[in-house]
Structure formats: C-alpha cells, structure tokens
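Minutes, project check-in
Item: structure for the 144-residue chain
Input as provided by the requester:
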Amino acid sequence: MIRTRRAALARSTQRFSEKILLKREARWRFKSGFVALYLVVPPASPHHMRAVLDIVIIVLDLYVWLLIASAILSWLVAFNVVNTRNQFVSAVAEFLYRITEPVLRPIRNVMPNLGGLDISPIIVILIIMFIQRVIAYYIYPNVI
C-alpha cells in the first residue's frame, strides 16, 4: 500500500514537472474554438543584436551597389550604348528604377535644378555611409 502511494506520488510529481516545462516552453490560447500554440521567445541576446546590425550593414552595402548600377545604366541608356528595347535591359532598368527611385525622388525634390547633372545618388550614398559609420562606431561596440 505504501509502495503504490509512493508510485502514484512519483507519477503525479512527474506529470506536474512536465506541465511546468510545457508552460515554460509554450503557451496555449483558445480563440473561437481553435487551439493555437504560441512559443515563448527568449529575450534577445547580444549576439542576436549584433547579427541584426550585421544584416543592416550588408543591406546598406547592397543598396549602394544598386545605386551605382542604376547610375551606370542610366548613363549607358543616355549615350545609346544600351538599347532599352531589349527585354533583358528593360527588365533590369525597371527593377533598378523601382528599387532606387523611392529614395532618390525626395532628394531630387529638395535639390535645386543643376541642369543635366543629378547628384542625388551621391547624396544617398553619403547618407548611407554616415549611417554605416554610426552603426559601426557607436551602436555595434555598445552591444556586448
């Protein structure tokens, strides 16, 4: 009789500890008859923040290269080196226009008319370089 009580007590404590572990790992939420499992996300460690900052820097670098490619392609089109009737060239030009124009347009609206000279890509590249320096010198070292 004592052994069965001890066995029952051991099983109930094991079930209780399993429930606690489940509560730590996941939360159950009942909504309109459906059961959804929401995982508990641990707080972000400094390594995760550094990874996010690395990704931001990589994306900014990639955008600088897209700005350079857009400027070069616009020169090639302006000097009739590349024909925009070519399907591939027009697809690349459209892609670069859609990616870079939302950032360049507000700067072009603020800048005075310089004739045929468009320095808005240079200004955007300088702003991106400033943001990268701020991240590298001030934000990244403080994330330990």
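Outcome recorded: The first helix runs from residue 2 to 25.
No further action items on this chain.
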